[in-house]
Amino acid sequence: MDVELSALPFALRTYGPDGNWSFEDGVLTGWAGPRQDRFVPPTEEGLDPASDAPRLLGAPPEGDFQLSARVTVGFAGAFDAGVLYVHVGERAWAKLCLEYSPDVPTVCTVVTRGHSDDANSFAVDGSSVWLRVSRTGRAFAFHASRDGVRWTFVRLFTLGTEKETDAALVGFMAQAPMGEGCVVTYDHIEYRPSWPKDLRDGS
């Protein structure tokens, strides 16, 4: 299923389990079902083929961009999360999450290159936070914000060559690894064809 968001210059397509995605009055809503997640444990050899989560992704125009949104999660179980997601390959992808980790809302990141890593950034009061993913060349950056104005630098990383990165898919994901499911909403969705002027000055 394709979904058109007025704020984005590219169409989005569904991947993985059914997320019941909908877009109305500027709000994107998705739902993760029981024990749906996307993670390749570094302590194990492989990924369970059944391990997946609802994703809504598209291919942005080549070149620099920023994709941001306010993410609100209906937390119900440990590690429930709303996610901005970057996909370069089946074992090359990354997540910027507002996650119940395991019982405190926290900005978390996962970068997968064969296997996943896992890192917590900072705790959040309440169930909402602004998240932003940016790209320039072969590099991606993650930022988060409590108010949508001042941004905290979270992570800078690569997932492949510049050619592979130019073909990346970006978008949204919902997960509920341990629980019975959760609803995630995204609003204030914004796209800019630029890279942040400075990763660490709050802009």
Automatic annotation (TrEMBL):
InterPro entries: ConA-like_dom_sf, DUF1349, UCP022704
UniProt-recorded name of the protein: DUF1349 domain-containing protein
